[in-house]
Design goal:
- It is built from 3 helices and 5 strands; from the N terminus they run ααββαβββ.
- By secondary structure, the protein is an alpha+beta fold.
- Strands 2-1-3-4-5 form a 5-stranded antiparallel sheet.
């Protein structure tokens, strides 16, 4: 995994998740495939394998670049801006 400039700008304490699933999926009656946690604000969104790609949409709307998997047993992080595992 590589470091990027966006990782150093993250809050030191990981933000608390704002929900336990993708609220946008619930709103439209869709089922998220896998969940992602925004490491800037705690938004939980579905991955790009889900029909609506809410985690990517969150990045596009807010510019929050780094997320991590919100799946049990997974801890990898992704920077949308740099397109890198970080």
């Amino acid at each position: 995994m590589s470091e990027c400039v966006h990782v150093r700008d993250l809050p030191r304490a990981e933000p608390a998740p704002l929900s336990d699933t993708c609220p946008e999926c619930l709103e439209v009656g869709s089922h998220p495939v896998q969940l992602r946690l925004c490491l800037v604000c705690g938004h939980v969104g579905c991955c790009d394998s889900s029909p609506f790609r809410h985690a990517t949409a969150h990045f596009e709307e807010t510019g929050h670049p780094v997320m991590r998997s919100f799946e049990p047993g997974e801890s990898w992080r992704w920077c949308f801006a740099d397109q890198l595992l970080v």
